[in-house]
Amino acid sequence: MAKIYVASSWRNQYYPDVVKKLSEAGHEVYDFRNPPHGQGGFKWQNLDPDFDKWGVKEYKKGLRHPSSELQFKSDLDALNWADTCILVLPCGRSAHTEAGWMKGSGKTTIVYIPVMQEPELMYKLFDLVSDSLDEIISLLKSQPFNTTITSKKNIVKKVINCCRSTKNLIGPFSHEYEEDFDLEYDEDSEDDFCFGNSFLDIVIAQCDRIEHLSIELDCLLEDDEWEFQVQIIQAQTSLEFAIIQLQDIKDRLGVWKTSGHFNSEILNIIEHLDEAIEHLEECLDDSI
Prior knowledge:
- By secondary structure, the chain is of the alpha/beta class.
- 49% of the residues lie in helices and 7% in strands.
- The chain is globular and about 55 Å long.
C-alpha cells in the first residue's frame, strides 16, 4: 500500500472524500486539514484577520510565526514520508508547489481532476492525469511502493545539491568575502531586508532543509544489501555537525547583529558540507 500526500486547497469540496476513499482502500494518507500535531490545520487568517493586506515585510514575519513553523514542519515531514502525491484540483500555489516537490524528488505524482479545469501543459511532468478516483486507486494497487520508487540516486543528488546551495548562500557572509558585501547591521533601519536579517533567514531555511534531507537519507539505510550504507552514515554524521553549528548561529544572531561574528563557524559548516558531498558522491554510480 502507498503512503500518500494529498495536496489540495482548504476550499476544495472533493478533498475530504478523496482522503476517505484512499484510506478505505488501505493506504496511509496524510491529511493537512487534520495534522498529527493535533492543533488543527494552518490558516493565515488565524495569524492575522487582515493578512490579505500584508506587504512582503509582514509576509516574511508571518512565515516565522510559531504556527507557520509548526505546520510547515508537519507538511514537510509528510512530504518526506510519502511515496506518492495526489494533486486534487482545483487548488492553488501551495498544493502545486508540493506536487512539484514530490515529482522532483522522484516520487509518483498524480493529478486528479473531479471537474475539468483550465488545461495545463506542464501536467505532462506527472505520472497520471485522471478524472476517476477509481482509476487512481486501481493504479496504486498495481504499484510496488517501496524505496525503489524513490530513486536512491535522486535522493543522494538532492542532498548533494542542498549542500552545495547552502555553501553558496552562506559562503559570501564569511570574512573572505566581506569586501564585496556590506554586512553591517543598521540598528536605525526599519527595513527587515538588511543583511543581518537576510543571513538569519538563510540560516533558518538551510538548517531546516538539511535536517529534513538528512532524515530522508534514513530510508536508504533500510536496504541492508545496499553497498553504500557506510557512506550514507558518514555523510549524515557530517550533516549533523553542520546542523549543530547552523542552529548555534541561529540562536546567537539575536546578540551579534552581523554575520561577520560567525566567520569561523561558516567556514566549519562549509568544511562539513564538503565532507558530506564527498561521501555522497561515492554513492553515485551504476550500482544504485
